[in-house]
Design goal:
Layout: E1 6-13, E2 18-21, E3 27-38, E4 48-58, H1 59-68, E5 74-87, E6 93-106
Parallel strand pairs: 4-6
Antiparallel strand pairs: 1-3, 1-5, 2-3, 3-4, 5-6
Length: 118
């Protein structure tokens, strides 16, 4: 049986997507999505909470993200969770979970005509 690590995020970009070129000629867009969610508690300051998720979008999907998205854009991201592991120069183990996007829906663009920068 194959394991599954699928996630759906609905939120806003915290900054413009960054375009990166990877060895081998592949392109990558990297961005962070802020997801607001409410927690039900009696303490008012704990009611609203935000989680931040780092997202990688490859090839044409990533190129479209770079072209059409900007800081604050509302998106729905569907993709797989991936844990990256590495060692620091001091030999300490580190890890970070990112989302590899399979679909990015540009929610803020519905019914609007976006102008492209020349």
């Amino acid at each position: 049986m194959k394991n599954l690590s699928y996630i759906i995020l609905d939120g806003n970009l915290t900054a413009d997507p960054e375009e990166k070129s990877i060895s081998g000629g592949k392109s990558l867009a990297h961005f962070t999505v802020a997801v607001n969610h409410s927690q039900y508690s009696q303490d008012a300051k704990d009611k609203d909470d935000v989680s931040f998720f780092e997202v990688d979008a490859w090839e044409k999907l990533g190129e479209n993200c770079v072209e059409y998205l900007k800081k604050g854009s509302k998106v729905t991201v569907m993709g797989n969770l991936k844990q990256n592991r590495w060692k620091t120069p001091d030999g300490e183990s580190r890890s970070k979970v990112t989302v590899t996007a399979t679909t990015v829906r540009f929610d803020g663009m519905r019914g609007k005509k976006e102008e492209k920068a020349a």
